[in-house]
Write a structure and sequence with these properties.
Layout: E1 4-8, H1 13-29, E2 32-40, E3 46-49, E4 52-55, H2 56-70, E5 79-86, H3 88-98, E6 103-108, H4 114-119, H5 122-129, E7 134-138, E8 150-154, H6 159-175, E9 178-185, H7 194-200, H8 207-213, E10 221-228, H9 231-242, E11 246-250, H10 257-262, H11 265-272, E12 277-280
Parallel strand pairs: 1-2, 1-6, 2-5, 6-7, 8-9, 8-11, 9-10, 11-12
Antiparallel strand pairs: 3-4, 7-12
Helix pairs in contact: 3-5, 9-11
Length: about 280
């Protein structure tokens, strides 16, 4: 299901963790990995050595790309590398579009302070601006193995969520993984706690889950659940309970300041869960 994977690299630990995960995916699917370094044109970097003028960021990027390509050799993964100049987000999104990548894999530290949250990292911006699937991998000590064995898909019945269900179903079918479909209702019935409310609801009768099941192959092992409470909190808690290896979610393109400040559910999950999050359907005017 993957033929060509794009991995932006900058020499940081999160980027290296993401690269190793991408290489494992590529090895499993016999895919090619394109390693990309963007020399940010907003940063002054030209210097003179003798009579030659060189760009220090381009020189540094070439070494980062060379080192990244070497990591693919033990896995016999074909890797290509390139250094381009430009604004990082625009360069990554444009490169993926121009080269028809099936997947973008990026690292993230999971920003938490307000300034970083408002400004957003390059990974956040790519997630919101590309229509291509983006796998965000956190910089954590315990790396997630691939292929995944347990996949979680929160769904609300939206078009973006439906696309996420279909993609997760394809991954589960390919690798024999268990697929969990989760609906979170952020209003608890009056006079009853969230745990009791969930226990009394039959997930099999929920129309959102029934609709989601229509997009999953009948041979896939599917578990369904309904939770009441904070949407982001219930998603991350449920992922921990079932031992999910990956969360697959749809996302909307957040463009306005107020929307970015508040953050979507997907953005909040990206910042708080330690496991990889695969997003799809990010671009929307």
């Amino acid at each position: 299901m993957y033929d060509r994977i794009l991995v932006p690299v900058d020499g940081s630990d999160p980027a290296t963790v993401a690269l190793d995960h991408a290489l494992a995916i590529a090895a499993s699917h016999d895919a090619t990995v394109d390693v990309l370094h963007v020399a940010d044109t907003n940063v002054p970097s030209q210097t003179r050595i003798g009579t030659d003028v060189i760009d220090a960021l381009v020189e540094e990027g070439a070494q980062i790309v060379a080192d990244a390509r070497e990591r693919g050799e033990p896995l016999d993964v074909i890797t290509h590398g390139e250094v381009v100049q430009g604004e990082p987000t625009e360069a990554i999104v444009g490169y993926a579009e121009d080269n028809d990548h099936d997947l973008i894999v990026m690292g993230s530290r999971g920003q938490r302070n307000l300034n970083e949250y408002v400004l957003g990292s390059t990974t956040d911006r790519v997630v919101n601006r590309t229509e291509r699937p983006v796998l965000t991998v956190r910089d954590v000590d315990a790396a997630t193995d691939y292929p995944y064995e347990t996949i979680l898909v929160p769904t609300d019945g939206s078009q973006q969520a439906t696309e996420a269900v279909a993609l997760a179903g394809e991954i589960a079918a390919t690798h024999g993984a268990v697929l969990h479909l989760l609906v979170v209702i952020n209003e608890t019935p009056i006079g009853i706690d969230a745990e009791s409310a969930a226990a009394e609801v039959d997930a099999g009768d929920n129309p959102t889950i029934q609709s989601a099941l229509d997009h999953v192959d009948a041979d896939v092992d599917v578990t369904t659940a309904i939770r009441f409470g904070s949407i982001r909190g219930e998603i991350t808690d449920y992922a921990g309970e079932v031992g999910a290896d990956c969360i697959v979610m749809g996302t909307h393109g957040r463009q306005g300041f107020d929307q970015r400040l508040l953050g979507s559910t997907t953005e909040r999950v990206l910042r708080t869960t330690p496991i990889p999050v695969l997003t799809i359907g990010g671009k929307r005017q």
